[in-house]
Input
Amino acid sequence: MINAYAAFEKGGPLKPFEYDPGTLGDNEVEIDVQYCGICHSDLSMIENEWGFTQYPIVPGHEVVGAVSSIGRDVRHVKVGDAVGLGWHSDYCMNCQTCLSGDHNLCTSAQATIIGHNGGFADKVRGKGASVIKLPDGIDLETTGPLFCAGITVFNPLVQFDVKPTDKVAVIGIGGLGHLALQFANAWGCEVTAFTSSESKKAQALELGAHHTINSRDPKELEAAAGHFDLILCTANVKLDWDAYVATLRPKGRLHLLGVQTDPVAANMVPLLFAQRSISSSPVGSPATIAKMLDFAVQHDIKTIIEKFPLEQVNEALARLKSGKARYRIVLCR
Output
């Protein structure tokens, strides 16, 4: 049996929940959960913000732990290995995107917390390809959020062949943004943070930003016209998209990573004549996740976390909902 915490109704508190996972499949890995980050997506699913939550739901898709059991077809990890599990717990492995290495774009992929029990538990299961062995030297308690927030901001650097000479900006210095600053700086880029918070301005500079721009000051935005090759937007609120598009160089890209619930509206002409683009992407493939973890170890990139014991999961969720967490919350067993 697996002992977990589950929400039984929309927005309800998480309560102890025990379930039988059944016989371990030939290509499955069972993980003893040691740490599990809390993502805003967990909160969205608990509150059914996206309209398809099935209750009871066991959240948690930023899992770090040790392999406790493996199916007979699993070869890349062994019992006792330190591993992680992120947004996806399975891929079809047969579609063109999987066969091309873009598993994260698989339309049949199994999400870890959608129709599947997640990592707010003593154990969790995932299919072999979704379970990533952790590199030596990585800090286990801060690694969980890399499996969602970290890969979300790292993936565009790989996908769009970002150069060390590129000028990269980050909107939203929070759970994703504070990692984006570190990755972009270590990538070799000139990094700018858009922020309206004086306290976050100082920390943004500490985390790797070379410059900051007050996002509420039209004059500072105008002064940055035509400057950036890539803007990573980690905010999930409606913004003046035309103002940010104007700060892009020709062929520049505004890349949206926060889940937007409002339509993204921008004037066509500034995009057309400067061949600029607006795009988005979800997490990353297993190979890109593994690359990100190696990169994080090489450059000592770590998530800034607040820790809560698993038994205080409701207090941890309340802290996340308050918007005061700096910058990710991790449940510990």
The first strand starts at residue 2 and ends at 7. The CA atoms of residues 32 and 123 lie 5 Å apart.
